Known about the structure:
The structure is a homodimer. In chain A, 44% of the residues lie in helices and 15% in strands. By secondary structure, chain A is α/β, with parallel strands linked by helices.
Amino acid sequence: MLGIVKERLFTPGPTPLLLEAQARALAAGNVHHRTEAFRKVMVETLALLKYYYDTRNDVLIFASSGTGAMEGSVANLLSPGERMLIGTAGKFGERWLGLAKAFGIEAVTVESPYGQPVNIDAMKQKLASDGPFRAVCIQATETSTAVMNDVRALGEVVKNYPETALVVDAITGLGTSDLRIDEWGLDIVIGGSQKAVMIPPGLAFASVSEKAWGLIAKSKLPRFYFDFAKERKNQAKGETAYTPATTLIIALNAALEYIKKLGRENLIANAALLAEASRVAAQALGLKLFAESSPANAATAVCAPAGVDSGAIVKELRTRFGAIIANGQGSMKGQIFRLAHLGYYDITDLFAVFAALEIVLLKLGQKVELGSSVRAVQEVYLRHAGGQ
Amino acid sequence: MLGIVKERLFTPGPTPLLLEAQARALAAGNVHHRTEAFRKVMVETLALLKYYYDTRNDVLIFASSGTGAMEGSVANLLSPGERMLIGTAGKFGERWLGLAKAFGIEAVTVESPYGQPVNIDAMKQKLASDGPFRAVCIQATETSTAVMNDVRALGEVVKNYPETALVVDAITGLGTSDLRIDEWGLDIVIGGSQKAVMIPPGLAFASVSEKAWGLIAKSKLPRFYFDFAKERKNQAKGETAYTPATTLIIALNAALEYIKKLGRENLIANAALLAEASRVAAQALGLKLFAESSPANAATAVCAPAGVDSGAIVKELRTRFGAIIANGQGSMKGQIFRLAHLGYYDITDLFAVFAALEIVLLKLGQKVELGSSVRAVQEVYLRHAGGQ
């Protein structure tokens, strides 16, 4: 019916691109990575990445998706016969299991139902009763269910085990939640480029603590591409062991400059505000939140109303309004939809997507008071704006 | 207070860029205009421009702002001692007067108060009583007041004067209103690139009828850069008399392909829908429309509430939400604000900007029912969507 429908991403990765970062990469033209100019960019970018991570630990960059750095964490920490403790509460937690299996590593799991966080007390008990474990693996934010895990509490526990590293998949946790990597003892923290750093997919990041480096030195699992020690040595000089994804690194450099200017704490506060407003707005429409106890800031998972397939909501939003949101994953497909807040999103985006969602729900036969969820977002904005 | 605030244009030029058109221009790299490759682009673009204009007349492209083609119309049609009839109802109508003065041409004006359309009957009378006139000049849409003039009725009148050309500034009228150039006898119709064609400023367009070409052949005013006959001859071969703005023409080519795929009638219907929804939404907030009798689709002009400077609305929208709308121009500054609909805007943009406007009005001390204007936009959408 309508003439123009612009495409708008509201997915928890890829996220809306920071165009000025894209432009920088494009303007760079032909780049050779074995040059002084590129080494300078690489060194700068690694320093900015430490600012973004808020850590004194080394941070490495890989040309891969985030899963590559997850694999690297396993392959660099463990030796045959050693074991992993995995906290899982969704599709990405299950990825640790897949990695353990691929490398022939025995895994003990603490599993929570979808929609709930991992039980950290249960992990503490397993560490005490079923150890030793070389690695403890968890998600900071389980993206498939939009749940946040208490990695701070887990860090306090793992600190007491000098031969055990805590590995945190913070692919959607970075830039959306307060992660005190050094203080909490998060030994390896994994990130990805298509998330809160606002650039396209293709880069994975891993911060590595001194404790982790000590364990890596003793590890015997096979690795070649994701060899952390080799990358540490190279990246200290602004080099990479293998060909770096140059345009993505240039874009990352520009995006991290933007984030530094904005302030990483403001990036996190932005996601927190949008998450809060989304929860209130969904509830204003009579919708149930999927992650009730420990919702993430990275995204909000909302249950489809009874009798409505969440896929229909996703499809109608896309067709009518060009707004691309995420369906549930795995067993949650058709039951929930997810709206992202990580990275380059603002409150005005939220006004738009909730107004669109109201129409979609109406068209799918639901009773909707038009404007009611937008009003909820506005009220959250006003509460935060206070006297401003 | 908020972390991320994205910039969003809601101004009647520049308008939001079609990024795929920008990307095409950038990807073209170094272009030389005296090449077969560029001639091919030029010929294609001129053909697409005729589609966009919906005319069989020649359409010329100039590297200039729209005002350049306005000057060209005067300089190419008139001779010293000849006269112009001008219909004016705002800042852009007054530009015709400035041009007449600069070229030493006597002008007779029919002037309407800001916010009202030009009185076409009065122009008809002037043509009969005060002639002969070589040119009759008017705006299809007076952007400064967001008023539409009845150029169809004026065309019917001017058709009866074989020695008089009708010149229409359709800089914001093209792509937002039904302009039957050939049928209505619009002899010269002027456009600009930063309007409904979704690309940056820097190009002006002019369609020229056979009647106008006949008069141009006899005209004696001085012109060099804006020499229509010289450009006609060059552009027929895909050349230009002077250096063309190559990257803008490549972007125009891409944008016009998008418009052709969308359908020019859908582009116009899109602007009409957004204009209708904006009027209803503004009224839902208790605001008065500035152009009550003949509102344009290109933009909506809204009166600021009593005691509020419209500049404060513009400033707060920009600061809080990154939404850039236009203040009134000239004597209307501080009294009205203007929200554009021409080009790459969609209904989701409107949800967003009205939700933002509600908060701004509230912060400026107005009584606002949050969500009420968004609901008005939603209702217009639903009415147009019908059973869809």
